[in-house]
Structure prediction request, 154 residues.
Amino acid sequence: MIKDHGWSTRLGLLPIRLFGKDVGVLLGLRTVIHPAPDLGAAKAWWSSVLGVEPYFDEPFYVGFNVGGYELGLDPNADPAVGPVSYWGVRDVAVAVERFVAAGAVVRERVQEVGGGIRVGTVLEPSGAVVGLIENPHFVLPEGGPAGAGEGPGR
Prediction:
């Protein structure tokens, strides 16, 4: 069981339980990766919608910085699965193990994707994909995401 002495809430950490079992501490949302079978068309569309060019642009992946979070385009991702949200964790291998112990099934084994970033995905018991990411470079802009403010929906 995770003991929370108030520090996790103050740091924005979310102790979670899945089906009554501890699965670790999620650090918050980090990345959403969209399938992009036609990477060029997807990149052009998202650039138009977001009003910015990607900060990372390679034939195997395109990444946009959206308010400090990653919006990724993957030409090899399965459109039938849809976008996958990746939750930040301190150690992705440990997090995957904890999710599996709580009833999840490994979908994609933990792998290094460059720059010390490691990712893995699991299927939670209802079959939804959960992405986990260990990203030592992730830092939100000071004051929170761009455009954040007071009021509903922010």
In short: The longest strand covers residues 105-114. DSSP finds three helices and ten strands in the chain. The longest helix spans residues 39-50.
